[in-house]
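Workshop exercise sheet. Pairs work together: one partner reads the sequence aloud, the other fills in the structure field after running the prediction. Swap roles for the next sheet.
Pair: D.N. / O.F.
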Amino acid sequence: MENQTPDYERVGRFIYAFHRMGLSVAALTSATIPPELAARSNALAQRFDQIVKTSGNATDAEMVAVLNEADAVRALIGA
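Structure field:
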């Protein structure tokens, strides 16, 4: 079940972990992303934005899944 109150500390840790990987929404939506990864990286950027805009109301499992996907995409694009 999703938490209904903003958890700024939790979302802050999520943002920090995401950016610490060397990724940003701008990098994920850049025209330099290989075409075969464009849809995947755009979906990741949208999910990241959604979690941030809802102040971390995603479950821990959802945040971990996004961070795992970010790590996989980062490895594929060589960020």
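Discussion prompt: The radius of gyration is 12 Å. What would you look at next?
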